[in-house]
TrEMBL record:
PANTHER family: DIAMINOBUTYRATE--2-OXOGLUTARATE AMINOTRANSFERASE (PTHR43552), DIAMINOBUTYRATE--2-OXOGLUTARATE TRANSAMINASE (PTHR43552:SF2). Signal peptide: none annotated. This is Diaminobutyrate--2-oxoglutarate transaminase. InterPro entries: Aminotrans_3, Aminotrans_3_PPA_site, Dat, Ectoine_EctB, PyrdxlP-dep_Trfase, PyrdxlP-dep_Trfase_major, PyrdxlP-dep_Trfase_small. Belongs to the class-III pyridoxal-phosphate-dependent aminotransferase family. Pathway: Amine and polyamine biosynthesis; ectoine biosynthesis; L-ectoine from L-aspartate 4-semialdehyde: step 1/3.
Length: 438
């Protein structure tokens, strides 16, 4: 065992966060359960912040990975041709793109979601010759400088240390509580020659804002945004890093709206196994890169291609998995609403879509206490939103009905304990609050 010690803590940067929320040493994981080094079991409603849509150490994917490694297959390849890379490209095209009538070329920009966003922003500027990118209030797109410039969270932006330029925030859907028509401000800024807004190269948006508090955009709003972009010759980038790969019930979160973005950013669960992998999809006419103009050392983690291709074959060859996700999502929505109904003093309402749903609390402190109470009962669940006021559930899409029910029971008990005042004097252990562990 490797216990938490003062020396262990002192050797790691203060930037760590999740270990403050859940101060145990995790040792093993399988499916929707994690175990600490003393054998205690935790049900996972976090799923690696959406990187583990198919659970921990999924047996079918693990076999593919172990076989790949044991056969001495290529592990690192930059952008050289490999059998696993070719298999993923062909499988993604045949099982995901073609059935949806989508014509995209694939860019492998690096191992993380921020890499996918940076590639999209860079290419949009190259294609259009413009600098400005429009983003939205409460959006989150990554921690590198370009991605931070289109991110709304002030804490994250404050860590940049330099001015974040060439980006303009606009109000997300329902930001003004329905007081103004959709895009009233945005379109006025675009058409008024005195507004000071240069015609943007692109707009980048999440269909459901994950870190921003599980704010879902209406399909009508997304369609209106797509039309606005076409009207003004602006490229539309959908950041599907957390909400893609089935999280909302369809493989891409924008499918329900019937729109076709110019670019799509994927990462997190695209490898299926938690192996770092990112993908930027671009319309063919936008592929104006010169060879090597956008590259990186870890564009080809071939084991990730192998598990990714197997994930697509196992879960996305037909619509059965989508139906399962939607059924589970309906169960979560009903249970969350029942929790809200009996805790009017501490909760505001249910937010999100698919298996990315949460309960908005009256304050961030209340959400912290609920998350703490859930952890003490053996459930991992995080908070989101500008004030951390949303208790955010991201269970694995493969979670069993029994595990889902057990997690909902724990969460219901956590809300009940906070509502009854049992944790009124407890110290918060959520990062960013006044008090925390170590």
């Amino acid at each position: 065992m490797s216990p938490i010690t003062d020396r262990t803590i002192s050797l790691e940067s203060e930037v760590r966060s999740y270990s403050r929320s859940w101060p145990v040493v995790f040792d093993r994981a399988r499916g929707s359960k994690l175990y600490d080094d003393e054998g205690a079991e935790y049900l996972d409603f976090f799923a690696g912040a959406g990187a583990l849509n198919y659970g921990h150490n999924n047996p079918a994917l693990k076999k593919v990975l172990l076989d790949y490694i044991s056969d001495d297959r290529v592990m690192h390849s930059l952008d050289m041709f490999t059998s696993s890379r070719n298999d993923f490209i062909d499988t993604f095209n045949s099982l995901i793109l073609e059935p949806r009538g989508l014509d995209y070329k694939m860019v492998f920009p690096g191992p993380g979601g921020a890499n996918a966003v940076e590639a999209a922003l860079k290419l949009a500027r190259k294609v259009t010759g413009r600098e400005s990118v429009v983003s939205f209030t409460n959006g989150f797109h990554g921690m590198t400088l370009g991605a931070l410039s289109v991110t709304g969270n002030s804490l994250k932006r404050g860590g940049a240390g330099v001015p974040l330029v060439h980006a303009t925030p606009m109000p997300f859907d329902d930001y003004f509580d329905g007081d103004y028509p959709d895009f009233f401000y945005f379109e006025k800024m675009l058409t008024d020659s005195g507004s000071g807004l240069n015609t943007p190269a692109a707009v980048i948006v999440e269909t459901v804002q994950g870190e921003g508090g599980l704010n879902p955009a209406r399909v009508e709003w997304l369609r209106g945004l797509s039309e606005l972009c076409r009207k003004h010759d602006i490229l539309l980038i959908i950041d599907d890093i957390q909400m893609g790969c089935g999280r909302t019930g369809t493989f891409f979160s924008f499918e329900e709206a019937g729109i076709v973005p110019d670019m799509v950013c994927l990462s997190k669960s695209i490898s299926g196994y938690g192996i770092p992998m990112a993908l930027t999809l671009i319309k063919p006419e936008l592929d104006v890169w010169e060879p090597g103009e956008h590259n990186g050392t870890f564009r080809g983690i071939s084991a990730g291609f192998a598990t990714a291709a197997e994930t697509l074959r196992a879960y996305w060859a037909d619509d059965a998995f989508s139906f399962e996700i939607r059924a589970k999502a309906e169960k979560v929505a009903k249970r969350f609403q029942s929790i809200v109904d009996v805790t009017p003093g501490i909760t505001v309402g249910v937010k999100g879509r698919g298996l990315a749903q949460g309960i908005e609390c009256a304050t961030g402190e209340i959400a912290d206490r609920v998350s703490q109470a859930a952890f003490e009962r053996g459930l991992l669940i995080e908070t989101a939103g500008p004030e951390g006021q949303v208790v955010k559930a991201l269970p694995a899409l493969t979670i069993t009905d029994e595990e889902l029910e057990a997690g909902l029971e724990i969460l219901e008990g956590a809300f009940a304990s906070v509502a009854s005042g049992e944790l009124a004097d407890s110290a918060s252990i959520i990062p960013g609050r006044e008090e925390s562990y170590a």
